[in-house]
Amino acid sequence: xxxxxxxxxxxxxxxxxxxxxxxxxxxxxxxxxxxxxxxxxxxxxxxxxxxxxxxxxxxxxxxxxxxxxxxxxxxxxxxxxxxxxxxxxxxxxxxxxxxxxxxxxxxxxxxxxxxxxxxxxxxxxxxxxxxxxxxxxxxxxxxxxxxxxxxxxxxxxxxxxxxxxxxxxxxxxxxxxxxxxxxxxxxxxxxxxxxxxxxxxxxxxxxxxxxxxxxxxxxxxxxxxxxxxxxxxxxxxxxxxxxxxxxxxxxxxxxxxxxxxxxxxxxxxxxxxxxxxxxxxxxxxxxxxxxxxxxxxxxxxxxxxxxxxxxxxxxxxxxxxxxxxxxxxxxxxxxxxxxxxxxxxxxxxxxxxxxxxxxxxxxxxxxxxxxxxxxxxxxxxxxxxxxxxxxxxxxxxxxxxxxxxxxxxxxxxxxxxxxxxxxxxxxxxxxxxxxxxxxxxxxxxxxxxxxxxxxxxxxxxxxxxxxxxxxxxxxxxxxxxxxxxxxxxxxxxxxxxxxxxxxxxx
Length: 506
Known about the structure:
The protein is α/β, with parallel strands linked by helices. The chain is about 35% helix and about 20% strand.
């Protein structure tokens, strides 16, 4: 995405984005069971399939002697259209096979009339994939007005060349003016020839679909850093429509006590502890009883998630209230749940949690909510006492189990994240109006007197911008580079995007 564009003007032009999530006719994951196991054959990928409706727009023209009767484009008769349709269907099969997220491709719809355009507009799908070979402007505008995300595919060298390769920018997006006037799409919704460019946009929309309306259990209620500690929950509900299910500590405490008095449950937790500690790369540097209690607490958390049919959980007052109840810290249970493929966050900070849910769905990998430190010389330290181990969505990183740093109590993972690993880092503002982001590489996993899971990173990009313009506090990271997907997704909600790692097109 071109970060040199005037974002304020662009968001004004793209009223779909400025209108926020209410303008998107994108069903949330709550249409289906929210509490899901990882998608078969896709590692730790979770979420509901993205339903994609492809449409081929074309129009035939009659010869008119001694007159300019034929617009640009290579589809001139029904045979041309049939050949192109078969080709698109083959390409979409390959696209679906290449996707690292579940995607359903609906039958290709022909559009050569206003009535057909209206029928496609009303399709039960999440995304319209529009092959704009020809046809009039009104048909494109009908599809864009569906309030479903549209991705337009144009042919240049892949041929036969499409009419809208010539005029999508001046006629469709700008309506023959010098300003963007199409409310439903912008230049970053249009792809020429390259299906990899289509695929990452669909990956972004998959993440957006599953994040909007996501359900999350909030132990001790929803919270949020920032002035007054009120912005996070309000914006999470308003912008992301998160379905936050609070669970009071008055309810949680007897659940914990019941399990601690259940001999069978305790024996199971002891076995789980022994199995965990026997894994390669695991070492214990605290009292073993804290691990046993951590597995008991994990069972309570998962019962609440199952009861609420929620794929995510977070804990408020996790550095205080829960410790005497559970006789351990919440750090290990949150790590366990993330490694199983669901989502678990500490501190109940709904300023940053939406970014974690979105990044989790886009990447298909566990994410790490953490504290950033003061950037200097292109280097930064990121740390927290809760981190997943299966950061690449597959393998377990080595881990040392220590006490939680601030309390010097319980059990917390010091995950040895991979040196040299490329990561995506998201930094939402307290108001959620802006997200700053960057790509980085892990330099080291040191052992400072700070939260246990800690990494020193090298920022890829203008680190001085991060120093000068950083807003909010907590950040979110995952293995891999997903900056273009996240930026594309949040633009649909009118959130300002600042990617300091890339000053060129996405």
